[in-house]
Amino acid sequence: MRILQRDLQDHIGARVSISGWIHKKRLLGGITFINVRDRSGLTQCVVKDEAEVEKLRGMQIGTVVTVEGMVVEESRAPGGAELHEPVIDVLVPVTEQPAIEVDKPIDHKPENQDTLFENRALNVRNIQEKKIFKIRSSLNRYIREHLHSQEYVEIQTPKLLAGATEGGAEVFKLDYFGQEATLAQSPQLYKQMMVGAFERVFEVGPAFRAEPSMTTRHVSEATMLDIELGFIDGHEDVLNAVQDMVYDVLTRVYDEHADDLKSLQAPQLTLTEKFPRFTVAEVHELYTKATKEDTTTEKDLIPAEERWICDYAKKKMGCEAVFVTEFPVEAMKFYHMINPENEQTVLWGDLLFRGLEIATCPQREHHYDTLVEQMKSAGIDPEHPGYKYYLEAFKNGLPPHGGCGFGIDRLVQKTVGLQSVKEATLFPRDINRLAP
Amino acid sequence: MRILQRDLQDHIGARVSISGWIHKKRLLGGITFINVRDRSGLTQCVVKDEAEVEKLRGMQIGTVVTVEGMVVEESRAPGGAELHEPVIDVLVPVTEQPAIEVDKPIDHKPENQDTLFENRALNVRNIQEKKIFKIRSSLNRYIREHLHSQEYVEIQTPKLLAGATEGGAEVFKLDYFGQEATLAQSPQLYKQMMVGAFERVFEVGPAFRAEPSMTTRHVSEATMLDIELGFIDGHEDVLNAVQDMVYDVLTRVYDEHADDLKSLQAPQLTLTEKFPRFTVAEVHELYTKATKEDTTTEKDLIPAEERWICDYAKKKMGCEAVFVTEFPVEAMKFYHMINPENEQTVLWGDLLFRGLEIATCPQREHHYDTLVEQMKSAGIDPEHPGYKYYLEAFKNGLPPHGGCGFGIDRLVQKTVGLQSVKEATLFPRDINRLAP
Predict the structure, then answer these.
(1) Which among B6, B211, B227, B243 counts the fewest CB atoms within 10 Å?
(2) Nearest-CB residue to B154 (from A124, A140, A190)
(3) How far B361 CA lies from chain A's nearest CA (Å)?
(4) What's the CA gap between A222 and A312, in Å, rounded?
(5) Distance between CA A116 and CA A101 in Å, rounded?
(6) A359: which residues sit within 8 A by CB, 6+ positions away?
(7) Rounded to whole angstroms, how far apart are CA atoms A136 and A412?
(8) DSSP string of A32-86, one letter each residue
(9) What domain range is B41 assigned to?
(10) Contact B231 A2 (CB under 8 A)
(11) B22 in any annotated domain
């Protein structure tokens, strides 16, 4: 019967069996020590018996073993106990030296990232690296738990589409039984349609963008959380819904993964229940005043401003998540709602966290006639079959609604404190990378 | 301040505001009645005032309204209360008659399915139809909660691949920045690789199969649950893991959605904690004996046997979920493990539920050399770049493991009692359908 490393302490003085990978092997004063890794941690085994040492000859890191031995208290061993007088059973021998050393810190320097991704299946065996993806799993879990508690219905919408989801952006195309199909850039149209039935919906899934540039912020296949919320009283309701989710999820992950985050040298969390909100114009003004670099004629935020405003809010308001609102109409998508109080701006807020845009959170135009006009202005043909069903949903009555496209990869990146969104992704895809 | 229909009972005698869609409208004895649908149910509003009746003139089903009125107890109204003396605010008028009647039962007959999918955004507004997808959302939720409780790590793996996941099956191909890419048929290779780091992983996501046939069981884009579990003692551990999850999830959904399932005329749940297990040979023998149709020379199960064995187990053993094991080697995939006790069969079990295969649950071959041999026998080139990283993971040590590919759409179908997997899918994809 296998026990896990974390339970060793309960078996002091007894013989138990552990299973895992040889994670480290060293010879010290004539004695062989091996660390065996299982999903809960590392077990140190003290191998003195010659026949047992012999079994380890030529066995490389990664060799899969079962070790039966006596549990002995040892304060210097991980978990405060180690195995003595072990009997080793090699389940799967590894005889070639692995391409990278998994028990050493993984180097995340930009120039090493190709090696990182090339050897991903190996480097996630590293104790530290693995934590990034356990935190990612928890973030996904807490997000869904929060949304279920708010009565959102999880939906799964198709990634194979007859038309592009959003005008203009780069799409992947493929042959679908003789017909041209595109890969969904987002569930945008579907989630809006589903507000008509469920009021509140969400989806977590892949989003495909034929993004030809190489940046630390973009991948051609991202994991996106899409939320849509009906019967809002105004744009504020959308921002509040996203804010409450992010506050809940981040405080929870910082609580339940405190040790992991500390050991990864993640920044401390500085968050208030209500996130500060600035208009784009206010950010330009504040930034220009502070840096003497004039951005007041810029329409959008420049990346330096995204970083600056988060630092500013952190210092002045104790919150490193902020909403920037009232983006200029020049940047709008056809499905955004123009601000009725200032038609030069859109009811669209971006959530920034630690200097990076994590989510776009607009209110949608829900009036059929206005929507059709906005499509035409954007150069999109409302008669295109890809929009037929979408427009029908508005004809059939959709309430005021809004939502967000939320980058899961980016949230993981910024939570852990990584340089690139790709480091937060198990197998990132970009213009140069389609494998592993 | 909006309240929901389900909370009306708490406000008897008070004036409240509800918001939703006009779901039904009728004139009875000179009085206009409207039912307003929100996400919790239907509110009956009794409209007598002429000015208010006038507001409803020409307003079709789907019109979005806020109704402010007095809550009056009324045992014949849904929820035991209705609104009197309403003041209606039309938020979004619907002036064209919807293509289908959403307050009438939706007809699921095979010949009506095109109409069903063509008008999906409208027919999920139907109270009954909507329940199917709320149950689907809950099934997804309970599955994840179960897997988290068993220490599985949720992963997200790429759908854009350099090579086909599994030899032979139909794949969609596309141009990826000048390189040929395929759409993942499953996360098979990735989840196996990740066992090397996390031991236990799962993923819920789309799987793409260029399936040229039209059946009630297949779609070209399915939602699959993929599970992989390391350090198993044998194939039994895989079957047990899937069995315990399914038992937990189904009993929970039948408990928490009891009313919904009853109103959908879903079959009663007949399940034992341990699911009966039969080998393929045993099913052939039992079926041949019972029906006089000789299937003993068949290698695989025929669909009639899948239905028959579930009925048989339900009647004889009180369980309508069964495992069928020891599939013949002729049907194996290269990554399956051949049964060491009978080399004509594979350590592969199918989970059948109510007559349909829901999941395939094999043990994997984890020995590098054997795996390479099996690839060659299957006509797959182990040197193909699509398998490079996969094979490296085995060289670096993978423990005994197994898992399942589990059809979420099929689980929903069979839980609710639908004829086709497509009815359990919001926007199904098949050879003839790429929209909506």
Answers:
(1) B6
(2) A140
(3) 22
(4) 29
(5) 12
(6) A242, A350, A351, A404, A405, A406, A407
(7) 6
(8) EEEEEEETTEEEEEEE--HHHHHHTTTPPTT-EEEEEEEEEE-TTSGGGEEEEEE
(9) 5-92
(10) yes
(11) yes
Check B426 against A155: CB less than 8 A apart. yes
B179 with A431: Cβ contact below 8 A? no
Cβ of B198 and A385 within 8 Å? no
Q: Could you read off the pLDDT of A183-201 as tens digits, one per residue?
A: 999 999 999 999 999 999 9
DSSP bridge pairs for B174:
A174, B181
CA distance A304 to chain B (A): 30
Evaluate whether residue B112 is within a structural domain: no
Q: What is the pLDDT of residues A98-153, one digit of tens each?
A: 999 999 988 889 899 999 999 999 999 999 999 999 999 999 999 999 999 999 99
Q: How far apart, in whole angstroms, are the C-alpha atoms of residue B70 and residue B43? A: 12
Euclidean distance between the first and final Cα of chain B, in Å?
A: 35
The CATH number linked to A74 is 2.40.50.140
For the stretch B168-171, contacts whose Cβ atoms lie closer than 8 Å and that sit 24 or more positions apart, written own/partner, are: B168/B378, B168/B379, B169/B209, B170/B209, B170/B210, B170/B211, B170/B212, B171/B208, B171/B209, B171/B210
Would residue B265 count as lying in a domain? yes
pLDDT tens digits for range B25-82: 999 999 999 999 999 999 999 999 999 999 999 999 999 999 999 999 999 998 899 9
Q: How many domains, chain B? A: 2
Q: Is the pLDDT of residue A166 over 70?
A: no
Residues B184, B83 share a domain: no
Query: What's the CATH code of the domain at A207?
Result: 3.30.930.10
pLDDT tens, A382-397? 988 889 999 999 999 9
Do A85 and A154 share a structural domain?
no
Nearest to A434 among B137, B179, B395 (CB): B179
Identify all chain A residues contacting B184, using CB atoms and an 8 Å cutoff. Answer: none
Containing H/E element for A299?
A: none
Q: Is there a contact between B92 and A21 if contact means CB atoms under 8 Å apart?
A: no
> Which among A62, A133, A153 has CB closest to B153?
A133
Tokens of A220: 């051609």
Which among A389, A396, A409, A425 is the top mutation candidate for probing chain B, defined by the most B β-carbons within 10 Å of its own β-carbon?
Answer: A396
Same domain, A209 and A88: no
Q: Is A3 helix (H, G, I), strand (E, B) or coil?
A: coil
Please say which residue of A92, A118, A138 terminates a domain: A92
Predicted local distance difference test score (pLDDT) of residue B169: 65
What distance lies between CA A1 and its chain's CA centroid? 36
- A426/B220 CB distance under 8 A: no
Whether residues A133 and B125 touch (CB distance < 8 A) is answered with no
Nearest CA to CA, how far is A1 from chain B (Å)? 10
**Rounded to whole angstroms, how far apart are CA atoms B183 and A105?**
34
Cβ-defined contact of B198 to A396 (cutoff 8 Å): no
Q: Which residues of B335-355 are buried (b: 16+ CB within 10 A; e: fewer)?
A: bbbbbeeeeebbbbbbbbbbb
* A312 and A179 fall within a common domain: yes
DSSP B429: -
Rounded distance, CA A363 to CA A240, Å? 12
pLDDT score recorded for residue A399: 98
B181, B67: one domain: no
Distance CA B32, CA B377 (A): 73
- Give the distance from residue A284's alpha carbon to the nearest chain B alpha carbon, in angstroms: 36
Instruction: Name the residue among A147, A145, A137, A176 with its Cα closest to residue A159.
Output: A176
Cross-chain Cβ contact A144/B148 below 8 Å: no
Phi, then psi, of B73 in degrees rounded to 5? -65, 135
Which positions in chain A touch B206 (Cβ < 8 Å)?
156, 158-159, 205-206
Contacts B400 to A, Cβ<8 Å: 91
Q: Which residue has the tokens 């149950």?
A: B135
pLDDT tens digits for range B354-407: 999 999 999 999 999 999 999 999 998 998 888 999 999 999 999 999 999 999
